[in-house]
Each structure stands twice: as C-alpha cells, then as structure tokens.
Predict the structure.
Amino acid sequence: MTEKPSTGNISLMKIFLSNRGNLRNFKSFVESLDLSNPKRLEVTTHDKWVTVHPANLVIVAALAIQAGKENTEIIGHIPETGRYLDRMGLYELMNTPSPFAYQKKEEAGRFVPIKLINNSDDQSRFISDVIPLLHLSEKNALVVKYVIGELVRNVLEHSLARDGAVVAAQYYKKTNRVSIGICDTGIGIWKSMNTHWHPRNDIDAISLALTPGITGTTRKDGGTAENAGAGLFFIKSIAKITRNYFVIYSGSAQYTLLKHRKRIKGMPRLYADPMRDPHNKTNNSPSFQGTAVAVDISLDETPEFNDLLSSIGDFYDKAIRERKRAKYQQPKFI
C-alpha cells in the first residue's frame, strides 16, 4: 500500500482513499481516519488504484462541507481510477481542480452523485433519483423506497446538523447491486438517544438505534406516529437477507453487519437485538461528531427477498409486543 504524503506538523483531518474501498473493509477505513482538526481536511489516495464506496465518499464530502471548500484539498498523485471522485462530484467540494474534468462522464442511470439533503423536498428528490437504479418490481420498489426514506429521515433526526446530510448511491451492473451511503456532522446517535434511553456509550447507542421500535424521540416502545423506530432495522434486515454488508459509524463506535453464510439453508433469521447478528463492532474508533450509515443491497428478487418485504412489518410488530411483554413481566419492588 502506498504511504500517505506527509504535511509535517500541521494539524488537520486526513483521509486516505485506498484500493480496498468497500464495506467489508469499512472498519479499516475508519481506523485510518485522522480527525484531529475539523477546520482543515486533506485527502490522499492510493497512487495506482483507488476504489471508493459511497460510504467513504459521503464521509469525505460531509467533512469537506464542515471544513469549508477553502480549507480542503486532494493532494498527491491521483490514479486514472480517481476519475470516480470527479464523476461523483467530490472535486466540487474541494479546493483542488479536477484532473479529470475533461473526461466524458459515465452514462446516467448508473449512479447518484453527492447530494446535500436539508429538508423533505431534498429527501424526495434523492429517493426519486435512487429508485430507477433498483430495477425492482413496482411492489418491491415501493417498499424499498419507503425504507430508504426512513434511512434518510433517521440520519436527519440524529443529525440536527446545520450542514444537513450528504448522500450518494452507485449501481453495479455486474453484480446487480446498489450501494448507498449517507452521512452528517450533527449531534451523533449517542446524544440523540440520551434524552430518553441513556446509553452507556456510543456502541450502546448504536445498538438502541438498530433495535426495532426504539427511537430517540420518545421512551415509548414502538415510537410515535411520525417515527416508529423502524428505518435502520429495516435496512439492516434487507442487507442480511440479500447477504450483504451494512455499516453505521457514530462517535467512537462502528458496527458492521457481516454477510450471512450461503451454506446455511433457508432465509436468515431476523433478530430484534442487532448484537445477535453476525457482526463486528468497536467503541474505539476515531471520534466522529456525526453519523454515517451505508448499505449494499443485491437486487435479485429471490423468494427470500420477496418474503422479507412481505413480512418485515409483521416481524417489527412481533418484536415490539415481545419487548413490552418482557417489560411487564419484570418484578416490581415496593
């Protein structure tokens, strides 16, 4: 791996975009971040090949917006594959001219470049751009549309960020997969959850956010009419059923849902407790003031995928009932 160029003793945020930019390696990407000075950002890449998942892209974009264009730059040699950064609109946020501006952009319909979401209108436009990438039946497309909307709304809820949320998506024709990333530099999940749930640390806050029926807006199981605490759980469930990765990063915590093993027959079991799913986690990541969420979704409409979309609401309701029942059965001391 090529070493990152040094800028001496100047304090700044540093992000290195490697040749392994996928969700499987998201933990390594997070561990390599230097977030020491949010007012300046420097980005470098592998000098022979760079691979960037929307997850990596939106984190860079959100931090660039936070620092301000005049305080951000991409330095060093950028390989030909770095044209992806131009195509997805990253250079527009950086104080560095794109060396790929002269190249023809990729055909429309394969990707959704970096977009900033500040309100429900921005959210609706992003969803309208993503849905054509999904190539699903009308019925399933509507369900996924709802879930993506919930994902965006959840991050905005945890955000309360003046800069809004940054989103991007990419469709991979060869594997018939869509990858989505969303990131903000707001209050983070721990602060969002602390008002009603008081998590011990960032990883506990993430666990709560992934649990169906729990939301930062109320202590009530099942949430409210406006926020049922379902979006992140639904997205994670779709990733699990389609044997893909899902990641969430906030504060010093990072959670990655690992792929369900193919040799296990039948549809993977869904759990209300995210820690029962195959995953890796850490509470010792570079402290990130905000929230990043990303997912890969295979778009093959297998029987398992269709069964999930038809029954996911039933599982959510069951999880809420079981948690309420367990709460009422707890002994009360007078």
User: Anything to note?
Assistant: Strands lie at 13-17, 41-45, 72-74, 111-117, 165-172, 177-184, 246-251, 253-257, 279-282, 288-298. DSSP finds nine helices and ten strands in the chain. The chain has a mean pLDDT of 82. Residues 13-328 form a domain with the Heat Shock Protein 90 fold (CATH 3.30.565.10).
